[in-house]
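[agent] plan:
  1. take the single chain provided in the ticket
  2. run structure prediction with default settings
  3. attach C-alpha cells to the ticket
  4. add a short note for the reviewer (M.T.)
[agent] executing step 1
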Amino acid sequence: MKHWIKRTLFGFAGAAMVAGSIAGCAGQRHGWGGDSAEFRSKMVERVGSKLELDTSQKQKLTVLAEKLQAQREALRGAGGAGDPRSQFKALFAGNKLDQAGATRLIDEKTTAVRNGSPEIIAAAADFYDSLNAAQQQKVRDFMDRGGRRWSRHG
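[agent] step 2 finished; step 3 output follows
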C-alpha cells in the first residue's frame, strides 16, 4: 500500500479513536446534569491537555466532537422518536421476529450513518492533520492500547 494511503488511513483511524472516546463519554453524563455541551467541553479540555493542543487544534477537536454528537443523536432518532432499545425489543414482541421492521430499522440506521459520515470524516481529517508528529504519535499510542482512556499519568 502506498505510504500516503497508509498514513491517511492511520490518521483517520487515530482521530476516530480519539473522537470516539469523546463521543462515547458524551453519551454518559457523569455528574454534569446531563449537559452534553458542558461535558463535551470538559472532554475537549482533557484530550487537549493530554495532546497539548493549541487553540486552533482545540477548535477543530470541538467541531469533531460536535459532529460525532450530532451523528449519535441522528442514530438515536433514526426510525422515529423513541429509545433504540425499545425499538429493538419491539421486533421480538410477537410470536415471530418482525423481519420487515428489523430491515426497516437497519436501513434507517445505515442511512443515518451514511448521511453523517462525510462530515465526520472531514472533521476528523481536519483535526488529525492539524496535529504535529508528536501529537499524532500520542494518538497512535492511544490506539495501540486499544483505545482505553488516557490515565492521569499518560
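[agent] step 4 note for reviewer: Helices lie at 3-26, 36-51, 55-77, 84-90, 99-129, 133-144.
[agent] ticket updated
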